[in-house]
Amino acid sequence: MNLDRIVFILLFLAALIILVYSAVDLHNYPYFLTSSIVVAVSLALFFIFMPVLTNQWYVRLIVVNGIVIILMPVLESGLRWIFVSLLYASLLLATYGAWYLLKLKK
Known about the structure:
- It contains four helices and no strands.
- It is an all-alpha fold.
């Protein structure tokens, strides 16, 4: 693993720790916390390992995150979570753009 990946992993872990400890009343929304961590870890892993990521792994990343995003408003019992789900879905769409441009380059 090269130095860039190690630095990015450390920055990601620091940001995730700050997110978990600085958010107020996060214990009231356990699925939101879980889905946020899943999406954040997936995005970090996507950008860290994007050059060596296979199509099979990318499809798995999209399917797992898609299920997590769709279930968030249902399990948190509120329509106010749809905006957060749409935000996470737009991040996943951005990964498709990056994935497509990387595959064009190869």
